[in-house]
């Protein structure tokens, strides 16, 4: 039986960002994770930070976040080859860190990425991403933002629950898939 999930190819970070030292995550990372999937995709998905990418033996594997994300995409009818997944933080945190400082240091990298890639639609996962992209918005939480469309850097954006929240609370899966179906509808509408 074929495994339903795939390990997406990573896109290498620009040279000047591979060696970024703007926050303390630079001292604990093994590498910068710029993004993964189709780098030319017009659907850009934004997660809070990269998860584990290798097991203890160094073999590539899919963490729970990426498995749940791919399950949701499949249920919503979105082809994995039509998405590019990126992160607010470009490094996987391995221990405690100063979250506001790291997010503030990494946000310009994400903003640059959006300018360079010019996606048609953005889609954020979880409260961390919502709060980072809309710091001045009262109640910038997924609970408040999901189901609506907003604008970030001139691009339509909506939000849903973080895949790990869905994994921990399976009752959220229905809403997660609904939100991803709304993403598909928005993307199809923009393409016409």
Describe the structure.
- The chain is α/β, with parallel strands linked by helices and 192 residues long.
- The chain has a single domain, classed as Uracil-DNA Glycosylase, subunit E (3-Layer(aba) Sandwich).
- It is 38% helix and 15% strand.
- Strands 1-2-4-3-5-7-6 form a 7-stranded mixed β-sheet, sandwiched between helices.
- Helix 2 crosses helix 7 (173-191).
- The model has no long low-confidence stretch (mean pLDDT 92).
What labels describe this entry?
15% strand, Uracil-DNA Glycosylase, subunit E, alpha/beta
Blueprint (SSEs and pairs):
Elements: E1 10-11, H1 15-18, E2 35-37, E3 43-47, H2 64-76, E4 83-87, H3 99-117, E5 121-125, H4 127-133, H5 142-145, E6 150-152, E7 155-160, H6 163-168, H7 173-191
Parallel strand pairs: 3-4, 3-5, 5-7
Antiparallel strand pairs: 1-2, 2-4, 6-7
């Amino acid at each position: 039986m074929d495994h339903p999930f795939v390990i997406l190819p990573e896109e290498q970070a620009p040279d000047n960002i591979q060696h970024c030292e703007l926050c303390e995550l630079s001292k604990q990372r093994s590498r910068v994770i710029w993004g993964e999937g189709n780098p030319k995709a017009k659907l850009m998905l934004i997660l809070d930070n990269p998860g584990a990418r290798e097991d203890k033996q160094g073999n590539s594997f899919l963490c729970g976040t990426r498995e749940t994300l791919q399950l949701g995409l499949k249920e919503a009818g979105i082809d994995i080859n039509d998405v590019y997944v990126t992160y607010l933080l470009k490094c996987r945190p391995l221990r405690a860190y100063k979250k506001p400082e790291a997010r503030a240091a990494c946000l310009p990298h994400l903003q640059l990425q959006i300018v360079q890639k010019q996606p048609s639609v953005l889609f954020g996962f979880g409260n961390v991403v919502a709060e980072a992209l809309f710091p001045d918005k009262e109640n910038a939480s997924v609970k408040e933002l999901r189901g609506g469309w907003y604008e970030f850097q001139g691009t339509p954006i909506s939000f849903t629950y973080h895949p790990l929240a869905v994994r921990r609370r399976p009752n959220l899966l229905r809403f997660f898939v609904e939100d991803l179906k709304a993403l598909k509808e928005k993307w199809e509408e923009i393409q016409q």
